[in-house]
Amino acid sequence: MNDWDLRKLRLLRTLDELGTVRATAEALRMTPSGVSQQLAMLSRELGVPMLEAHGRRVRLTSAAHVVLRHADALFAQVERAQAELEEHQRGEAGEVRVGAFATAIPGLVIPAVKRLRRTHPRLAVRVREAEAAEVYDLLASGDIEIALSLAVDAPATGDTRFTRSSLLADPLDVAVPVGHRLADSPGLRLAELAEEAWIYGDSGPWRDITLAVCADAGFVPERAHVASNWAAILAMVGAGMGVALVPRLAAPESGPDAAIRVLHADRPRRHVVSAVRAGAEDRPHVARVLRALEQAAARE
Predict the structure, then answer these.
(1) What are phi and psi of 232, to 5 degrees?
(2) For strand 162-177 and strand 146-150, is the pairing parallel, antiparallel, or unpaired?
(3) SUPFAM superfamilies annotated for this entry (predicted)?
(4) Could you give the angle at which helices 284-298 and 110-119 cross, rounded to 10 degrees?
């Protein structure tokens, strides 16, 4: 029976995701020749070729795709085995690495860390800020154990590498200049702002969310300015340059120039999810951090 080397299988999985040997090498902090050598060894160990020439590049063979289908099940089983081993360990000491997008850190991760410091003081949580889409690469490579992202950035539900759970439906409010004609409207509807100049990002999830929410309200927002930093967005709103949707997790407050208004009638939301590698949700330390995050989300 051939040996299945999990490290080489993870390397093959990364190549399948990123498409090139160079990108794989950069992601795994290896040299391109090192990647090629490892995959050549995997081919010899399994007795089937993993790569074939495709122009100036290489691509995975049909045999490699068969291997990967079974490899994902192996990865999940290893995580479950690790979970059982941890259950037999004494004490509460351990470490869990969490990757999260910026606005999730103060609203969800920090409250969870504070709770865990009281209940499990020997459990360390290491936090890494990353874009919502990037955290899945970190999760797949083993750089983090828990990922927080927006649902719009999550991989397809059929992706068996990860176990995902809904964490929070984060309300979206609207920021308008304090002197705006609708700043004090008690029943402000998003459609009433259809003719306004809008401020949102050039790409990524926040742009997609803004467009989707406005489409649900019956209009396409005319983007006047491009920004993704909340301080910059609110400063532009305060200067009368436009209006913007802002997530409740970003915790912006009405200031002397910009007013935050709740859209009670529209009730727009963005959905935050947690994800772990399949099988890792049963690891005691990971499960404790997930529960703390769920408790933080329940208070929002």
Answers:
(1) -65, -40
(2) unpaired
(3) Periplasmic binding protein-like II, Winged helix' DNA-binding domain
(4) 120
